[in-house]
Design a protein that fits this description.
heterodimer; A: MetI-like fold; two-stranded antiparallel sheet; 12 helices; flat; B: D-Maltodextrin-Binding Protein, domain 2; 3 domains; ten-stranded mixed sheet; 16 helices; 10 strands; globular
């Protein structure tokens, strides 16, 4: 204790130590290892690896898999926007009109997520199946042609991602909207703002931190997702996550998989930084 | 001196005998236990196999064949169903194998139309069988006795074989009996799946092209690959699958799938409209091989292999799994309690059927160029 009294300045560092140690052990060390792995070359005969600064792994990965990389960002982007469009009105209703049912409504959003990710995605296989109810209705009303289908298309993959990441959008949005003092909106209306204007000038700006948090929490994992493309799509819909998982687990081509992981990470960091600059991080 | 000793000896024998006699039945049981309490047997045996690949008592959920082995040999068996896909399973164990570490298993089962059994043996990442403990090896189908990668059966024994052919839903389509039809019939557009295993898909198409899948050349490989690629890009082939074709095929989402013989027998119980057949121009055959990974208990594993090569035991497994049986004499043993299964041509194919199925060139499995081209088509 005496020691700490004399060296007060140490206290914050000591308090930080467990967190820093955790980051070092579970983030920096694996990351460094992954970095080393991405510069190795594999011997195809006995699957051993040799470190030889194989920077070409990165170039090879981009030339071979740029299609899947682009697709990942496109799908994740569309799914994030869709999730925002779906969840904003939903949580707006819960936050301002939910009354004493608020918690029940929230439970409806979270409820399905007590079932594991894989099972929920597999369920969509049946819901969207060619002989399933959804396709039947869509064919009857002419949205889909006679041989049209939903499962194994880009539509089903993007829908799956949107569905699976919706709560990550909805919950931060809810927190932001819930904290808005309704008297501010009343004040706006008292000052002759129309409902639409009050929303645009008061509610929307105040909910922006939720929008920012929600989009980041949705977009980042969605860009690396592979389960939806695997179960609801075909190789035509495969994302970069599918390539990485197959390289790591099936082809045991660790260097290529590690290089792809780094590229994905870098692209996400760039995208998020650009986004944060545009909307401003102080909103978070 | 000798007389007293003899008398003492005689007395002791009498006592032991008398004690045994007083509890009827103990003596033979004791004798049996003595005979089989082999000190070389390990305490436990860990087996990794594919799902639905051994008999299960539906009521108790226990596996009778495993239970009996445990009772008979006093070895506790840890039976894991953790192999779903050769490549994925190999990916999981290869790092330890490479470092010469134990993978915590005494028997693993991998398919010989993937490069892995040959690869594991070539790198000596497995233990030799203790052949003296496997007299039942005499029951192995002659056709399976000397594959190129282990011609003297030093490192492996077959578990089950299977055939690759076409399954279709008779409610949705007219019979699909050839690869030409599967890839060409426009009525099936978007309703067809092929297998992710290169040997199955490329091999079947090679046969349809009139080429020999047991002797792959660059020209025949590329011709088959192009044909599959064209059918995939054109939308005829919807997807490449492993076992996961099962559910959508039985639900009617897929109408025709390149698929494995035993799966369809099991699926027919949920959808009786499913049919399976070997394509007109020939199908593929493969065998799942038991291997003892390095540091595994070769002695106990060999005793287990000998046990499942007993036709009476094999018959119990066969009645449940419906794949092609590698053990001679099983048909007769099975006929005693399940005559229908004993007549099933998918379990005991006729000579005519066996003529229609082909092995895939094991050298082609190792060709890096083929492997990469195939993976590229699979999109990952």
């Amino acid at each position: 204790m005496m020691f700490l009294h004399r060296h007060r300045w140490l206290t914050p560092y000591l308090l930080l130590a467990p967190g820093l140690a955790f980051l070092a052990v579970f983030f920096l060390v694996p990351l460094g290892y992954l970095g080393k792995q991405s510069l190795e070359t594999q011997n195809p005969i006995d699957f051993s690896y040799r470190f030889n600064w194989a920077w070409h792994n990165y170039a090879d990965a981009v030339t071979t898999y740029h299609e899947q990389l682009l697709r990942s960002f496109a799908y994740a982007g569309i799914a994030t926007v869709l999730a925002l469009i779906v969840s904003y009105p939903l949580v707006y209703f819960i936050a301002f009109r939910g009354g004493r049912w608020k918690n029940v409504f929230l439970l409806f959003i979270i409820g399905p997520f007590f079932v594991t990710y894989l099972i929920r995605t597999l369920a969509w296989q049946n819901i969207l199946a060619d002989d399933g109810p959804v396709v039947g209705v869509f064919r009857d009303i002419g949205v889909l042609g006679e041989s049209g289908r939903l499962i194994d298309t880009s539509v089903s993959v993007v829908a799956g991602i949107t569905y699976n990441f919706l709560p990550f959008m909805a919950l931060p949005l809810y927190v932001a909207l819930e904290q808005i003092d309704p008297r501010l909106i009343e004040a706006a209306k008292d000052l002759y703002a129309s409902s639409a204007r009050a929303f645009l000038k008061v509610t929307l700006p105040l909910s922006l931190p939720g929008v920012v948090a929600g989009t980041l929490l949705t977009f980042i994992p969605a860009a690396g997702d592979f389960v939806n493309a695997q179960l609801l799509g075909t190789p035509r819909q495969y994302m970069i996550g599918n390539v990485i998982q197959s390289k790591f687990l099936e082809l045991t081509d660790y260097p290529a998989a590690a290089a792809l992981s780094f590229i994905l990470m870098a692209l996400i960091v760039v995208a998020v930084a650009a986004y944060a600059r545009t909307v401003g991080t102080e909103r978070l | 001196m000798t007389e007293t000793l003899t008398r003492e000896e005689a007395l002791r024998r009498l006592l032991v005998g008398g004690a045994a006699l007083t509890i009827p039945g103990l003596a033979p049981a004791l004798a049996k236990a003595m005979a089989e309490a082999d000190p070389n047997l390990g305490k436990t045996l860990t087996v990794s196999n594919w799902p639905l690949y051994i008999d299960v008592n539906e009521k108790t959920g226990k596996r009778p064949t495993i239970e009996l082995f445990q009772k008979r040999y006093g070895v506790k068996v840890k039976y894991l169903e953790d192999i779903n896909d050769n490549a994925t399973f190999f990916g999981k164990i290869q790092a330890q194998l490479r470092r010469g570490q134990s993978i915590g298993r005494d028997i693993i089962v991998m398919t010989d139309n993937s490069p892995y059994p040959a690869l594991i043996i070539a790198n000596r990442w497995c233990e030799k069988l203790v052949k003296s403990k496997i007299p039942n090896v005499k029951n192995l189908q002659p056709a399976l006795r000397s594959p190129g990668w282990d011609p003297k059966l030093e490192y492996h024994l077959p578990w089950q074989s299977g055939m690759t052919g076409i399954a279709y839903n008779a409610q949705k389509t007219k019979p699909i009996t050839s690869i030409d039809q599967l890839l060409g019939d426009t009525k099936l557009r978007g309703k067809v799946t092929m297998l992710t295993e290169m040997a199955d898909s490329i091999g079947s198409v090679m046969l349809a092209n009139g080429d020999n899948p047991a002797k792959v050349t660059d020209a025949t490989f590329n011709a088959a690959l192009k044909r599959i690629e064209k059918a995939f890009k054109g939308g005829q082939i919807r997807k490449f699958t492993g076992n996961d074709y099962a559910q959508p095929l039985s639900k009617g989402t897929y109408w025709a799938s390149l698929s494995w013989s035993g799966d369809i027998v099991q699926l027919q119980s949920s959808n009786p409209h499913l049919r399976w057949g070997i394509p007109k121009q020939g199908g593929m055959i493969w065998t799942d091989q038991m291997l003892i990974p390095a540091k595994g208990d070769a002695y106990t594993a060999s005793v287990f292999m000998n046990y499942v090569y007993d036709p009476a035991i094999q018959a119990k497994i066969e009645a449940y799994v419906n794949y092609v049986c590698p053990v001679l004499g099983t048909k007769q043993a099975l006929a005693k309690f399940d005559p229908a299964a004993a007549k099933n041509p998918l379990i005991f194919p006729t000579a005519a059927t066996l003529k229609q199925v082909n092995l895939f060139d094991s050298k082609a499995l190792f060709n890096a160029d083929y492997k990469e081209k195939w993976q590229r088509l699979l999109g990952a």
